[in-house]
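Researcher: Quick test of sequence recovery. Tokens follow.
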């Protein structure tokens, strides 16, 4: 079976004298698999995602994304690989404040020809795909799409970040507590959409949250404790 994500013997600490936060012997997500990963606050969920996104580098071990030893790529090659193959929904969204909602969502297609081509193949153009995803997420009105993202509520920003991550069918989508700012109905809709779009794109999904009520919607659920011998 091909793996969207594979970690082997990965250890990480934030500083030389800090405790080991991540100590994972083996963890894998298959291509197209949708996995829920739970863990209490401070257990290292965001750190694990930073390692997977190539934002942090393990002191030991291998992180492979779609078969590529991503963590070992340098600088621009690492950034390029991330842009081509990963959809990321961070807790702090990382939207660009000087761009409109629409332009934020279109960003992956500016940085990756592959994702641009995927968006065109599926919806005719990147803009059509962006509008479709935003509409599904309840952000369709033209005045909203043209607003700077700073003029949106936190829940709306969270949905913009999700639409951006899904653009152009990345092979792996990682989501860090993406529903924390949504009310119960919106949360349920949001997760349903994320799962549906990942299924349609054949993207694997790693969804990290402490909200266990969402776990049954995924193919598989795990606790970070099950895989991490580190500080958790
Ligand atoms: N940038 C950083 N520098 C130093 N230590 C950090 C940094 N980020 C996280 N840590 C530490 O690593 C440990 C794990 O934190 P992490 O944010 O990964 O947990 P989490 O499970 O995502 O928590 P939460 O659910 O509250 O977001 C904590 O002890 C935290 O203080």
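Model:
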């Amino acid at each position: 079976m091909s793996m969207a994500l594979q970690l082997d013997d990965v250890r990480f600490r934030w500083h030389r004298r800090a405790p080991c936060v991540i100590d994972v012997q083996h963890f894998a997500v298959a291509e197209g698999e949708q996995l829920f990963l739970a863990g209490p606050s401070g257990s290292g969920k965001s750190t694990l995602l930073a390692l997977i996104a190539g934002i942090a580098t393990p002191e030991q071990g291998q992180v492979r994304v779609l078969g590529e030893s991503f963590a070992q790529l340098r600088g621009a090659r690492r950034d390029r690989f991330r842009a081509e193959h990963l959809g990321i929904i961070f807790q702090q969204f990382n939207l660009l404040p000087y761009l409109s909602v629409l332009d934020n969502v279109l960003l992956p297609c500016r940085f990756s020809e592959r994702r641009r081509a995927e968006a065109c193949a599926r919806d005719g153009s990147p803009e059509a795909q962006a509008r479709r995803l935003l509409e599904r997420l309840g952000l369709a009105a033209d005045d909203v799409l043209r607003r700077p993202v700073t003029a949106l509520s936190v829940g709306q920003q969270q949905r913009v970040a999700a639409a951006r991550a899904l653009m152009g069918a990345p092979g792996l989508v990682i989501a860090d507590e993406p529903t924390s700012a949504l009310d119960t109905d919106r949360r349920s809709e949001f997760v349903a959409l994320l799962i549906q779009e990942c299924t349609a794109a054949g993207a694997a999904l790693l969804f990290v949250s402490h909200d266990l009520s969402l776990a049954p919607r995924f193919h598989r659920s795990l606790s970070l404790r099950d895989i991490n011998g580190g500080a958790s």
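The domain at 33-43+74-219 is CATH 3.40.50.300 (Rossmann fold).
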